[in-house]
Amino acid sequence: MLSIKIEKSLKDQARKTAQALGVSLNAVINQYIKEFIDAREISFADHPFPNQKTQKILNKISADIKAGKNLAGPFNTAADMIKSLKSDK
User: Are residues 30 and 57 both part of a single domain?
Assistant: First the structure.
């Protein structure tokens, strides 16, 4: 068992974030400690996490790309690209 001091608001935010990702805060902390031990380094970064609406749009785009739908290009010139944008396809 590990006991550490942490601000209540920070702990609450961390718990909510872990819950939104479907894991416990305990699992998150254990994983970070294991990575810290293995890598012998620590890094700090903030990676954006899309909201539900944005994720839905990204999933639709990904499906369209896989199906070869709603794609344009490649273009040989900027003029070709502009012509494509102005067309009624």
Answer: no
Same domain for 39 and 22?
Answer: yes
Per-chain mean pLDDT for the chain? 91
In the 8-state DSSP scheme, what is residue 68?
Answer: T
Task: Provide the whole-model pTM.
Answer: 0.46
Residues 6+ apart with CB under 8 A from 42: 36
Same domain, 41 and 68: no
pLDDT at 50: 86
Number of domains, the chain: 2
Burial of residue 15 (CB within 10 Å: 0-12, 13-18, 19+) is middle
